[in-house]
Write a structure and sequence with these properties.
This protein is an alpha+beta fold. Pathway: Isoprenoid biosynthesis; isopentenyl diphosphate biosynthesis via mevalonate pathway; isopentenyl diphosphate from (R)-mevalonate: step 2/3.
Length: about 130
């Protein structure tokens, strides 16, 4: 089963990457264009070694940027480790995936097994932006 999520886009008018460090500021405008993420299991069946090593495969694809990167996700430490890439890596997207998994982990505090069972078949994530971008 695939899950599709979207978020409104924005345009950074001033500030660039400097806004990531304090006390720098920037100006951001919201726009009608949206970003989409399609998330589905990477494999139909679990790989036997996934249970033993507590690792899950993650494939991150950005068709508009002609990028595809494979990762290993440590289910114990919730960290992504790149395995292969068709282009340069995008640390902002990598952090977004790690933070989303960490948020799910924190939300399911008493039911960690459910999250692990969802992650073990791997994640196939496709990110798309509206053509206006």
């Amino acid at each position: 089963m695939a899950v599709v999520a979207s978020a409104p886009g924005k345009v950074l008018m001033t500030g660039g990457y400097l806004v990531l460090e304090r006390p720098n500021a920037g100006i951001v405008l919201s726009i009608n264009a949206r970003f989409y993420a399609i998330v589905k299991p990477l494999y139909e069946e679990l790989k036997p070694e996934s249970w033993a090593w507590a690792w899950a495969d993650v494939k991150l694809t950005s068709p508009q940027m002609a990028r595809e990167t494979m990762y290993k996700l440590s289910l114990r430490h919730l960290k992504l480790q790149p395995v292969s890439s068709s282009g340069s890596r995008n640390p902002f997207v990598e952090h977004a995936v790690q933070y989303a998994i960490a948020a799910a982990h924190a939300t399911l505090d008493k039911d960690k097994d459910t999250l692990q069972k969802l992650l073990l078949p791997g994640l196939d994530i496709t990110i798309l932006g509206c053509n206006e971008f």
